[in-house]
Amino acid sequence: MFDLSGKVALVTGGNGGIGLGMAEGLARAGARVVVAARHAGKSAAAVEALRALGSDSLALGVDVTDETSVAALFEQVDARCGRLDILVNNAGTTVRKPVDQLALAEWHQVMDTNLTSAFLCCKAAHPLMKRGGGGKIINIGSMMSIFGASYAPAYGASKGGVVQLTRAMAASWAVDGIQVNAVLPGWIQTELTDGARAQVEGLNERVLARTAAGRWGQPRDLAGIAVFLASGASDFITGTAIPVDGGYSIAA
């Protein structure tokens, strides 16, 4: 039920953090993983790690905010792999400023990287998945899809948009055999959240106090949900937004 042998998975931002954690889960389940990112050195290291798990992995460069670059990425995937079964839209960024201090260029930077990129990649993936008889799309939202934070207006807006885009595509593409779901990571220890802990006073203590599991998450904690949503086990699940947060969102 969870076997991904023979499947091709594309993970944007898959060379580190949550993206790599998910990619490793998909690789262990048998998928051929394509790492799509901008940093060639990090991507090469990620591919080496995935190949050590038995995945015939490869890395492709992309700027997920650029429509031409995204189109070229999916053309390369089709040419080199012959199919696309799984797409994980993980590429993301943030700018930690309140609304009154946020420049329009910074707003666009976050929205284009987090939300517009998911739109572009899903749109490009759709014909390949439809041709193959179906597929799985996993969009990475955030706890900020649910909660508000004064220092993350653009990030929260983009991730809320990811959830609504997920629902719209799920409704549109179910007839094509494509399930589209979102994952809402809690506080996961990555380069991005290391910056948050450095910039937001008291954040580490508040996260530990509120998270039922009593710890920060690790990228490997996202591997299981990636495999579940990418496999036949989730064929009747679409349009959902699933928290993976150690109980952060259930705290009173």
CATH superfamily: NAD(P)-binding Rossmann-like Domain
DSSP strand tally: 7
Largest sheet: spatial strand order: 3-2-1-4-5-6-7
Strand content: 5-15%
Structural key phrases:
7 strands, 252 residues, Rossmann fold, 15% strand, seven-stranded parallel sheet, single chain, alpha/beta
What does this structure look like?
With 252 residues, the protein is α/β, with parallel strands linked by helices. It has one domain (8-244): 3-Layer(aba) Sandwich (Rossmann fold), CATH 3.40.50. The chain is 45% helix and 15% strand. It contains 8 helices and 7 strands, in the order βαβαβαβαβαβαααβ. It has helices at residues 17-28, 40-52, 67-81, 104-131, 153-173, 191-199, 203-210, 223-230; strands at 8-12, 32-37, 58-61, 86-89, 135-140, 178-185, 241-244. Strands 3-2-1-4-5-6-7 form a 7-stranded parallel sheet, with helices on both faces. Helix 2 links the parallel strand 2 and strand 3. Helix 1 runs parallel beside helix 2 (40-52), helix 1 (17-28) packs across helix 8 (223-230) and helix 3 (67-81) packs parallel to helix 4. The chain is globular and about 50 Å long.
Break the fold down into its secondary structure elements and pairings.
Layout: E1 8-12, H1 17-28, E2 32-37, H2 40-52, E3 58-61, H3 67-81, E4 86-89, H4 104-131, E5 135-140, H5 153-173, E6 178-185, H6 191-199, H7 203-210, H8 223-230, E7 241-244
Parallel strand pairs: 1-2, 1-4, 2-3, 4-5, 5-6, 6-7
Helix pairs in contact: 1-2, 1-8, 3-4, 4-5
